[in-house]
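In response to the reviewer comment on reproducibility (Comment 2.3), we provide here a single inverse folding case reported in full, input and output, so that an independent group could reproduce the run without further information from us. The structure tokens appear first.
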């Protein structure tokens, strides 16, 4: 119950997120992270490039449900892969 309260508290004070800004972050060339992420979803972990991992680390946690509404844990998977592959934190 406390966890639900803390999650609600952290999101309720957040500014509204512009869906277009979320999409532009991940589609922005030259990284074209969206294609790399689609590859990871299909098991091609080696396809993600360092530039994409750097982009992943800058995406707001509030944008992930907008970009991938049916994949709630994709951000954790990507951040884990990037941390292991490129030692990004």
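Designed residues, in position order:
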């Amino acid at each position: 119950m406390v966890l639900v309260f803390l999650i609600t508290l952290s999101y309720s004070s957040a500014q509204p997120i512009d869906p277009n800004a979320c999409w532009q972050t991940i589609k922005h060339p030259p990284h074209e992270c969206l294609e790399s992420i689609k590859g990871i979803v299909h098991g091609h972990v080696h396809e993600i490039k360092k530039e994409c991992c750097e982009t992943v680390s800058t995406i707001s946690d509030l944008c992930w449900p907008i970009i991938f509404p049916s994949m709630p844990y994709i951000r954790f998977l990507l951040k884990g892969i990037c941390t292991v592959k490129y030692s990004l934190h």
